Automatic annotation (TrEMBL):
Belongs to the SNF2/RAD54 helicase family. ISWI subfamily. The gene is Smarca1_0. Keywords: Chromatin regulator, Hydrolase, Nucleus. Its main location: nucleus. PANTHER family: CHROMODOMAIN-HELICASE-DNA-BINDING PROTEIN 3-RELATED-RELATED (PTHR45623), SWI_SNF RELATED, MATRIX ASSOCIATED, ACTIN DEPENDENT REGULATOR OF CHROMATIN, SUBFAMILY A, MEMBER 1 (PTHR45623:SF55). Coiled coil: none annotated. It comes from Mystacornis crossleyi. GO terms for cellular component: chromatin; nucleus. It is found in: Nucleus. Residues 82-101 are annotated as: Disordered. One of its GO terms (molecular function) is DNA binding. This is SMCA1 protein. InterPro entries: Homeodomain-like_sf, ISWI_HAND-dom, ISWI_HAND-dom_sf, SANT/Myb, SANT_dom, SLIDE. The keyword Nucleus applies. GO terms for biological process: nucleosome organization.
């Protein structure tokens, strides 16, 4: 090989790989007329049911959107409801200038500055205090003045049936109001019991009947009842304070059972 002269081979050429089908499809393609796009409906405003816009606004919005729904005249076996809906679509007209102006005006008449967080705080406050305690409810809704909450509350109770989730919301509020009523009845019973004695911490007697629990003694129960009344049964965190009173009471210095009880 060293004696032979090297002959360089010719350079390899890359052959184009024609996609024949694509070529002929492009060559024979007849320009088809473009189908005109259906007109787009105007952007719909973000409206929440808890903002309580005037009902007329929803009529205008429905009319506006119906005009842009594609028409489908072939409904031979459609149900009556479908036919009626189709009739609305077929007969729909765009909003005229007066209706457009009316729509824009109505969009300012709801509670536009109330968001979902404000609404949830309002519902939780109704659950906590009851629907009639508007002063405490107003304090619970952050970022809203008492006047704003009072105005919203009036409209809410007038139009709450328009809300999609009204059954769940009312059940939540009524559960809270039932707890409030129970606390009121317990407080009345506690006041009546204590009022029978001049020195209830020493004289108070408890009729257990056959249902006496085996955990607490009568001395412990007497102290808990009297101290609960003294501090105020409806006071916030009263059981945490009651637990501290038990820990500080000299008569329970070696009563490890009651000293180890939690607030719950």
């Amino acid at each position: 090989l060293s004696m032979m002269e090297w002959i360089e081979p010719p350079k390899r050429e890359r052959k184009a790989n024609y996609a024949v089908d694509a070529y002929f499809r492009e060559a024979l393609r007849v320009s088809e007329p473009k189908v005109p796009k259906a007109p787009r409906p105007p952007k719909q405003p973000n409206i929440q049911d808890f903002q309580f816009f005037p009902p007329r606004l929803f009529e205008l919005l429905e009319k506006e959107i119906l005009y842009y729904v594609p028409r489908n005249p072939d409904l031979p076996n459609a149900a009556q409801v479908q036919k009626e809906e189709q009739k609305k679509i077929d007969e729909s007209m765009p909003l005229n200038n007066e209706e457009s102006e009316e729509k824009e005006k109505l969009l300012t008449q709801g509670f536009t500055n109330w968001n979902k967080r404000d609404f949830n705080q309002f519902i939780k406050a109704n659950e906590k205090y009851g629907r009639d305690d508007i002063d405490n409810i107003a304090r619970e809704v952050e970022g809203k003045s008492p006047e704003e909450v009072i105005e919203y509350s009036a409209v809410f109770w007038e139009r709450c049936n328009e809300l999609q989730d009204i059954e769940r919301i009312m059940a939540q509020i009524e559960r809270g109001e039932a707890r409030i009523q129970r606390r009121i009845s317990i407080k009345k019973a506690l006041d009546a019991k204590i009022a029978r004695y001049k020195a209830p911490f020493h004289q108070l007697r408890i009729q257990y009947g056959t249902n006496k629990g085996k955990n607490y003694t009568e001395e412990e129960d007497r102290f808990l009842i009297c101290m609960l009344h003294k501090m105020g049964f409806d006071k916030e965190n009263v059981y945490e304070e009651l637990r501290q009173c038990v820990r500080n009471a000299p008569q329970f210095r070696f009563d490890w059972f009651i000293k180890s009880r939690t607030a719950m």
